[in-house]
Amino acid sequence: MVFAPISAMTFDASDPAATVAIGRLFAYLAMGVAATVLLYYGTIYVREVLAVEAGTEQWFLLIGIGAAIVYAAAGVSSLLLESEWIGRFVDGAILFFILFLALAIRAMYHEQPGADDRSRLLPAWADYVVVAGFIAAWWATFLVETSSSRLVVAVGWVVTSAWAVLYAVRAVRVHEGTTFAALTRHLLPAIVCVTAVVFVDLLATHLNGYGALADAAWLVGTTLVAAFLFDTAVAIRQQGGELERLYDWTTWREQSFDDRSVE
């Protein structure tokens, strides 16, 4: 999802390229702000809402959200500084955003109570092999043969997007009624939007005359991702509020079991 740099960020209503650039800038900023808010509430979710140990899942989730922040920062920098190598970080960041969210959802799917009854498609150590493989492949192509970095990212987009959607659906189905299911249900639309933008971008890369479609899909998709990330943060805050209301003295009732009356 790297676009040609715009030579000037000054707004000119008669210049469609400048208008698109301004739209990209605001979309990047919206996603960066939403991801930062989600990162804050994500730490609260792990620390105050979850009542189970979730060390591995926590780090996968927070790293994935952090990758979204890197994506937004790299995108803004690529627009303002017009640097091609920074633009390649945009592709890499969105790849690792999807990858680590998929790994977090997969880890929670398997490690929640009752997971022993479910067979694993891949062993637990495969998570680290996948992460190490993608990191090594991306940095190798970035530093040695930059022309191949696009291929690594494209393959990663397809594989990790399918992986993320698969485990998100399975996790919600298995853990229905839990806070984890609620969190995954709010994150799933963001993953789906990213996946849709990725596939439109890949198609537009290989088909001539669809640049405008790619721009439009990216602007709408990225804005929706930012909205869904912020919605996930709001959902986490609401879950924390529900726990707090359990101890809210203003809503407690004292009931006598002798006369079944409320005092």
UniProtKB/TrEMBL annotation:
- State the superkingdom: Archaea
Keywords (A to Z) from UniProt: Membrane, Transmembrane, Transmembrane helix
Q: Say if the entry is tagged with keyword Membrane.
A: yes
Give the transmembrane region(s): 25-47, 59-80, 86-109, 121-139, 151-170, 182-204, 216-236
Q: What is the lineage of its organism?
A: Archaea, Methanobacteriati, Methanobacteriota, Stenosarchaea group, Halobacteria
Protein name in UniProt? Rhodopsin
